[in-house]
Amino acid sequence: xxxxxxxxxxxxxxIALIVIAWAGALTNLQGLFGVVLPYIAITTFVAGVVxxxxxxxxxxxxxxxxxxxxxEKSFPWxxxxxxxxxxxxxxxxxxxxxxxxxxxxxFRGTTVELRGGxxxxxxxxxWLWMAALGFHYSFLMIFFRHFRFxxxxxxxxxxxxxxxxxxxxxxxxxxYISDGLLMACVTYLLIRRVIIPQVRYISLPADYFPLFLIxxxxxxxxxxxxxxxxxxxxxxxxxxxxxxxxxxxPKGIGSLFYIHLFxxxxxxxxxxxxxxxxxxxxxxxxxxxxANNNRQVRHVNPWNYPVKVxxxxxxxxxxxxxxxxxxxxVEKELSDEKE
Amino acid sequence: xxxxxxxxxITGIVIFVILMTFPFWFNMGRAAxxxxxxxxxxxxxxxxxxxxxxxxxxxxxxxxxxxxxxDNKRSFVAFDGKHFxxxxxxxxMKCHSSKKQFCDQCHNYLKVTPYCWDCHIEPKEPKESKExxxxxxxxxxx
Lengths: 339, 142
What we know:
Chain A is mainly alpha-helical. Chain A folds into 2 domains: 3-301, Transmembrane di-heme cytochromes, Chain C (Fumarate Reductase Cytochrome B subunit); 308-339, no CATH class.
């Protein structure tokens, strides 16, 4: 698929979803969009991710893949890099922590460009890393903040997160730093896909669609909080009804909320079956989560076929008498066996 | 079905499921009482229609403060043509006299902590409503 069709297809899919939710809210299908769909979505999300992880766990990992970025453990007088190229479990845990929490692999990003001269110019780029980190952490913050709608009483940690996020106390209601950061980072990630030719070439609808979806979720969320306003008390009543299994749809929640909720439901239903499932997948990256101890530990190929062997000793046992009769040399004489 | 590293995989899955279903087990066995803001009986209309004031009162108050403090514009014409003084303590609290039974109802429900009372002196709870508030209190401390 080329850029135009990929981009447009994802964009139109996003628009179509918004229209569906809007139509649903206007035609009094709040019960479907506010109760049934969220339950379907959360069930699909949890079961889907668990299914994917169990499915991955059934694939044997035959051998350590040493895509290393540091010196392997070797002679004692060669300094080993025990985090980038770990040979112990602790080292692996630290490497994984760097990968999951700080996106170490993206931090290594480089570009290769011909900048006028005859020589290739290699240099580090941190833009993707920065945007990815900003996006993921602000998404986490927003996700965590939303627990104020799902808990009663609200845990102190959620309240603390909210206070930290609205630290600057500008605008009423107070502007969340994560809202602005998320929108900026997702916009960058989208523009990056379109502008950089190499990235554009490998981008598919599956790459654009989640970006549009998250942009739409962010936009509807921001509109609800700062501009068009919705009745948050009723929304919390709806959310609390869902999590205490006494679902009820309070009247008077704006259709904007139902659009937001529907898009979130679509996102989490889509989650386990798309690239977004790297949430679980990152923990199962074989190049990151295996110690490079190929030379220290014996690794047996887990899919080795159980070979039936018939050793020479057994062969001789079967044919010893005939072999001696034919004058063939044997390792064990016949008389030995009789003894 | 053979799982490789099943110990780690199952631990991970259990942690994931517990985290993702947090609201379901956190609220288990707890009633979530809906907020019940006590509306004044003798007055019908607020300064804006009910739906609007419900969702936008914080912005109105913020604008009022700026207009009064910076421009000395104190008069507000309500949607039904009545004139009001732009004042939290004197206008809003005149009808909604109890902070506990009005403001705090929804604010506590969503743990919203507006900074109104950083500057304004918190109004004294009216006598009769105080008793009802106290009667309600043991319920809250449970």
